[in-house]
């Protein structure tokens, strides 16, 4: 290791823009945070697909980037490139640390110290939600990866605890690096834009929002059934299910069709970010009944927007929401009806909950996440060195 800055490479060959979900947003936000932080003892460079230049041009402008001309969906070639092309780049450039944010460490690493990000263990904890091929692969790859990694980062304290319990990783090697938000996440949306989106999508004056892809663990059914029960008493309220189509799409549509209030449930699919911000700003409540989250950034974004949150009392969501929202068992149907109705019926309570959410969200900063990640890089390169004393987000 040289006496100069630690040379850190970040493996983004797994990052297929628009395909890998929340892990893309988490990783890109953290890297922007590192660029903002610009620690003098770290020299960070990225190794990625050409697609990164198109999808995240500002990131490529801010951090040195080397790309390889592979199509994002050519998965076998991408995996091979991690073991061959990337390992060669690591050796050639004399990198001290390589960060693998995609959840798996390649078979060949090039000899540098290794930081691995494990977003969650859902494929191991709930294999029924994934293909047999993926589960078989990860049952072998995840334990091997955490064994060879010098440091394992996770997006929450809850995820860190689960990785320690399930895969036997010592606490000393686990570094929670929490999601953070940029200051612009707290900016108010123009009410005229909210009105435009409401009219364009044919929404009632008020709505409950759930903005996630239709994965099985997102538990849309409990929300649809709860809405069907509270809808008669709230004729001016709709339910908006925003987000792309996932493996549970047909089951969600069946639940909507059977609800008896299908005309008041809007399945929008994936929407532009500007429309999503308007839907969020105009919502009376954001519901988040997901059974399993490595973090739950949708709940954090809702709190940042000052919208009351009702979330499942499961995995990382209590850590994110804290005492600023309402927690309900993920399968407690009557509890969801009661919690949502209480907020819909009380404007003062909504205002109080929204203000509490803003205060809570302000403790999750991108700067804190970047500092925690920089500390993880130092720990991997210099075992036994003291960690950065700065904050790493809200405590779990």
UniProtKB/TrEMBL annotation:
Keywords: Glycosyltransferase, Transferase
Keyword ATP-binding listed: no
Domain Glycosyl transferase family, residue spans: 215-359
GO BP term (any one): lipopolysaccharide biosynthetic process
GO molecular function annotations of the record: glycosyltransferase activity
InterPro entries the UniProt entry points to: Glyco_trans_1, Glyco_trans_4-like_N
Residue intervals passing through the bilayer: none
Domain Glycosyltransferase subfamily 4-like N-terminal: residue ranges: 20-184
Protein name: Glycosyltransferase family 1 protein
Organism: Iamia majanohamensis
